[in-house]
Amino acid sequence: MKFTLDEIIQATDAKIIKNEGAKGTFTFSTDTRTIKPGEIYLPLKGENFNGEKFIDKALEAGAVGYFYTDAKCKVQSAKCDLILQVKDTLTAYLELANFYRRKINPKTIAITGSNGKTTTKEMVYCVLSEKFKTHKSELNFNNEIGVCKTILSMPKDTEVLVLEMGMRGLGEIELLSKYAEPDISIISNIGTAHVGRLGSRENIAKAKCEIVKYMKEGGILIAHDDELIKKEIEAKSKKQKAKSEDNTFYLLPFAFCPTYFSLDNTKIVESKIGYSKFIYKNHEYELNIEGDYNIQNSLAAIEAGLSLGMGEGEIAKGLKKYSPIEKRWEIQEIKGYKMINDSYNANPDSMVAAIKTIIDNYPSALLVLGDMGELGENEVEYHRQIGEFLVKNNKKDINVITVGKLANEITKTLNEKGIFSKNFDDNLQTSRYILDNIKIGTTIVLKASRIMKLEEIIDEVKTLK
């Protein structure tokens, strides 16, 4: 991604404060630690940081110029060739990304959801790469900065751009949609992630459905068959229709024909450790991973492929290439244990899905369950519900230990019903218990919210004696 100065001004409406011979094309950096000589520094601001305080460091590292917003900025302008002033640097970053995306003009797919959006994104990428030159968000680059980085790193010959979009509150996905302008929007599901911030699943549905606000004309919505999603989309459609005559609102192009997917419309032919086979819309598909929720995620990828004119054979070939990424059902053999690391994140829905996958597919296992975060005032009850689910679906050879204060509610619920479970304060205690008490050959599953850093258990099992 390189911009001429004219393109920068066109994209951001920046005011040139200084230009002493800056010519050619430019790239940008938002990080003084990785900035390269000749780049323009774009300092971002947030609640707890102000990149403009590091303009001097950027110039010392070789930046040819910088953006800024503060008219009182006291940076020594003699150190650089180019100074550009904008009202807001994050908005400028988004505008630059939008300008570049429009210039390349790929089909853009935006993906969100309470659970499984990264898995869905990876599956969509695997499918579409069978036919198109496809570029995707790396890891979970799903906020404003991550989406900009993804777009601006897109090769010029990209035909399909796959963007993951996350949120922590209302309005955030709408902002991402505004600058991404999706051709296809995917909502993997509506769950309880961030319920502590948004208060209810209804508000979560409202936030996730913001992804359709700035879809292109003729765009397509692919969504899980969930009544909350349907209700929200129907409400948006009626609102848009009611106001469209005076152009107050934009008439949603997909309002009458969204595509909804559900496990209810599949026939699961085979499910075992490391493999799933199912029939969807009269065609057979395979995944090299177990779990009904993975099949559900794959339905969105199938629909994305179909919407772009791919054949079922191409889609099936792409799906079979999917493999889990780091901390998402990542399987490792460590000291004779089969350790499944699903510790990237957790909420009640994803926790139940992971537990059900183990119960359905594994004859024996040790579940290591940690705290689930951002569940609000009912966090204790949500953890007790996980314990109750385990009680109702108890199998003799599926054992449970927990890590953390909240996860102790799972242990207490099990103990109250006479089912063995132990709770530990930290990952080191947990690792020591595994090495001292769990027999070699056991499958061990790690599941918790990111704050618990359960991957430390893997490192400690590797190194402790």
How is this structure best described in words?
This protein is an alpha/beta fold. The chain has 16 helices and 22 strands. A six-stranded parallel beta sheet has the order 9-10-8-11-12-13, with helices on both faces. A six-stranded mixed beta sheet has the order 17-18-22-19-20-21, sandwiched between helices. Strands 2-7-6-5-4 form a five-stranded mixed beta sheet. Helix 2 (55-60) links the parallel strand 5 (40-41) and strand 6.
State mean pLDDT (0 to 100 scale): 91
What low-confidence regions span 5 or more consecutive residues with pLDDT below 50? 243-256
What's the CATH C level of the largest domain?
Alpha Beta
Gap from first CA to last CA: 49 Å
What structural category characterises the helix and strand content?
Answer: alpha/beta
- For CATH, the homologous superfamily of the largest domain is named as Mur-like, catalytic domain
| Count of beta strands | 22
Domain module count: 3
Provide the CATH architecture of the largest domain.
3-Layer(aba) Sandwich
Percent helix range: 25-40%
Q: Calculate Rg over CA atoms.
A: 24 Å
List the helices and strands and how they pair.
Elements: E1 3-4, H1 5-12, E2 15-19, E3 25-26, E4 28-29, E5 40-41, H2 55-60, E6 65-68, E7 82-85, H3 89-104, E8 107-112, H4 117-128, E9 134-136, H5 144-152, E10 160-164, H6 172-180, E11 184-187, H7 195-198, H8 201-208, E12 220-224, H9 227-243, E13 259-261, E14 266-272, E15 275-280, E16 283-287, H10 292-307, H11 312-320, E17 330-334, E18 337-341, H12 348-361, E19 365-370, H13 379-392, E20 398-403, H14 408-416, E21 421-424, H15 427-437, E22 443-447, H16 455-463
Parallel strand pairs: 4-5, 5-6, 6-7, 8-10, 8-11, 9-10, 11-12, 12-13, 18-22, 19-20, 19-22, 20-21
Antiparallel strand pairs: 1-3, 2-7, 14-15, 15-16, 17-18
